[in-house]
Amino acid sequence: MTLVPSAEYLVRVRLGIAYDGTGFSGWAKQPALRTVQGVLEEALDTIYHRHGPAPTLVVAGRTDAGVHATGQVAHLDLTLAQAARLAPEALARRINGVLGSTSDVVVTSSARADPHFDARFSATWRRYEYRLADASTERNPLERTFTAAYAGSLDAALMHAAAQSLLGLRDFASFCKPREGATTIRSLQSFTWQRDDEGVLVSRLQADAFCHSMVRALVGACVGVGEGRFDTSELVSLSDALERTSAFKVMPARGLILREVGYPEASGFADRALQTRAKRT
After folding, report:
1. Are 69 and 18 in contact (CB under 8 A)?
2. pTM for the whole thing?
3. Residue 31 is assigned to a structural domain of this protein
4. Which amino acids are annotated as binding site for substrate, given as ranges?
5. Which one, 74, 132, 201, 241, has least CB within 10 Å?
């Protein structure tokens, strides 16, 4: 997909998306597997199949299997014929009609976007939330699909202190599954832990971007501190080693939710996309 729609693709559309990730094998379309992208692009094909090839989606965060979202963002490009078929502002309602009223994925908004807007590369930050019920929390079966469980008791204050020790611009290789040619340098802008009114441990993390499995590994590292397996200074040493370790676990996907994606003003879309592409390659 080009950064700016070509003469043949003149209408860029931004979508807001929410989904329960339990029944999906992640975001990205994969043969013979049910994915969020696959389900949405099938709906788009139903809507536009008489008006040329179905649009494809570019997404802000390619979530893993079982990860949820309330604030996912994607974009697609329409031909003039497709745009004439249905106004961009009406596309969310039409997709949801195709998916049905009990669908586990919902398009929350649709609007015509600036041609320089890129859902993935124009983003300046992503914000995730992780929910964890430990032994001190009364379990709520209605929340089991989006709250991970932990059998022991955890110290929220120690976990918060551990999270604070990892803030800033650094190499997060110790927390990322390596991908050839991709950098693991990220800016972790905020990382907190606290208990909600029901006693569930809730972590909120924001970064310019997260590499593969990074959020769940960061959460697992804080759990290691919260259960007393190692302290914050040891965690910093593990981080500085810049290699994957068995000292902490990658936590289950079901506790993770993509809450929000941030973007600059429209005048900054193109520059931000170029900067991000340069950093990621």
Report:
1. yes
2. 0.93
3. yes
4. 128
5. 241
Report the domain count for the chain.
2
Do 93 and 155 share a domain, yes or no? no
In a domain, 5, yes or no: no
pLDDT digits (tens, 9 = 90+) for 219-263: 999 999 999 999 999 999 999 999 999 999 999 999 999 999 999
Marked catalytic residue, from 20, 45, 64, 197:
64
| Residue 240 known to be catalytic | no
Q: With respect to residue 135, please indicate whether it lies within any of the assigned structural domains.
A: yes
Provide the sign of the torsion angle of the four alpha carbons 140, 143, 145, 151, taken in this order.
negative
Q: What is the pLDDT of residues 111-162, one digit of tens each?
A: 999 999 999 999 999 999 999 999 999 989 999 999 999 999 999 999 999 9
Instruction: Show binding-site residues.
Output: 128
The answer to whether residues 134 and 249 belong to one domain is yes
Report how far residue 111's alpha carbon sits from residue 124's, in angstroms, rounded to the nearest whole number: 20
Q: How far apart are CA 71 and CA 47, in angstroms?
A: 24
Instruction: Tell me the Cα Rg of the chain.
Output: 20
The parent domain of residue 81 ranges over 11-122+263-280
